[in-house]
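Researcher: Here's my situation. A collaborator sent me these components and asked whether they could plausibly form a single complex. I don't have experimental data yet, so a predicted model of the whole assembly would be a useful starting point for our discussion.
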Amino acid sequence: MDNNLLIKTNRRIVKDSIMKWLFGTASFLLIVLIAFLFYGIGADGVGRLNLSLFTNFGSRFPEQAGLKAALVGTLSLMAVVIPVSMFIGICSAIYLEEYAVKNKWTAFIEMNISNLAGVPSVVFGLLGLTVFSRALFLGNSILAAGLTMSVLILPIIIVASQEAIRSVPDNLREASYGMGATKWQTITQVIMPSSIGSILTGSILSFSRAIGETAPLIVLGIPVIIQFLPTGPLSTFTALPMQIYDWAKRPQPEFADVASAGIIVLLVILVTMNAFAIYFRNKAMKKLQN
Amino acid sequence: MTLIKDRKEKIGLHVMKNENWKKPVYETNGLNVWYGTSHALKNIDLTINEKEVTAIIGPSGCGKSTYLKTLNRMVETARDVHISGNVTFMGNAILGKAMPVELLRSKVGMVFQKPNPFPKSIYENVAFGPRIHGIRNKVMLDVIVEDSLRKAALWDEVKDRLHKSAYGLSGGQQQRLCIARCLAIDPEVILMDEPTSALDPVSTHKVEELIATIKNDVTIAIVTHNMQQASRISDRTAFFLNGEIVECDRTSTLFSTPEDSRTNDYINGRFG
């Protein structure tokens, strides 16, 4: 055997195993970090996960502090965000994909929508403050925050819905138009049934983002400790991430445990929503495949 | 201009000579289609007669699919399409604003190259057309679905799994389902764009048999790159080349004694 070749081959094999270790360590590092996070939060927070956490309002005494107002606030916020953002988002996506003529202008609009998805959330907070809070006199109400959050996640929903609609094969559109169906009939009977799974997946993931966002709420001046439940869309409120943020920055160490308990609640909500998203995606995939 | 007139007279005479008992379904006069600047169809004059199979043959890029898609105006879905000339369907002009495409297509079905059933059940696929045209009655839909599947010679194969996904069918069955889906709207004409090119020989044979039976009820215009198929199933054949009609005649005549030397060369496999 050629000695030179042997050395070269060995060198390649060594390089290969080094790379394997490098990649392995990189992903392992992430898992370790997540494990640390979960352990830290779990150890601190589990003790505070009792009924009083859900039935008490915020308090300056850590042992009495609860997230009743924040939980109801977050749910009320989502009651505005989900219908508003889904309606506008899906309608825009349908218009851009099915109705709009493909030209420079629509390409420009689409590029801007994609770019908006990357704009920092605090900027959307300022937008909400200017437009919804001040110009439309909505103040720091659920409606103002809900509309701001809707605008924040709209680009994500539009892009996800556009991709879902685009992935419906053109030959299904041809089949439908070829039978004399109108555009609207084709959209409701052919395109939506095939794409609604992916649209829901994208939407739910963006709702998770809206639930976790804090920056726009701070800009809008959402209060932290309130002793009442919101009475309507124009009532003020507080939300889970705001509440957690407030607890986390308090000096008493006991508040760290309450914050951890809050984080657990938030994570449970997020994981549940993501599970729904995965469920819808699998269902949609199955429908398209079999 | 004189050239168009000449050809018109030639084809007109031709119709009188051979098929004066047939009623024309589609009449095309001086049809031109451009994609952007490329002139895809040049002064096409062609008549498609009732309850006949008209085959359109020609090499790739000769405009045969474009012509077929003009007949139900699917050609307009492409970008930057420009059409001039006159096409009538059962005596009514169809181009431009003369007729809503939805109305035209409710009388003209289309079968595509690749079977394209919807990701729905077999039943829902066939019921799709009647439903979008406003039929809601369950009993009526059941009758239409069974009738259409029987006409498409698919009923016996699928009657036990009507509510299973159409994607579970074989390619050939899917294509016959697409034909059944067309038949369900009770069309005057079915346009077929190379309907067997994605199928195996056995499935192709079944589709050809099906065409032979349904031509008693509907007019068929079929684009095919397969000359044997054209000669087997069609009554009349039009030969397209570079966007023009070279020759159009009874299939037996066109294949045995073509008038134009280019037709002769093409059907004998010297080009294309």
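Model: Some features of this prediction you could bring to your collaborator: Residues 21 and 103 of chain B are 28 Å apart (CA to CA). Residues 8-17 of chain B have pLDDT under 50 and may be disordered.
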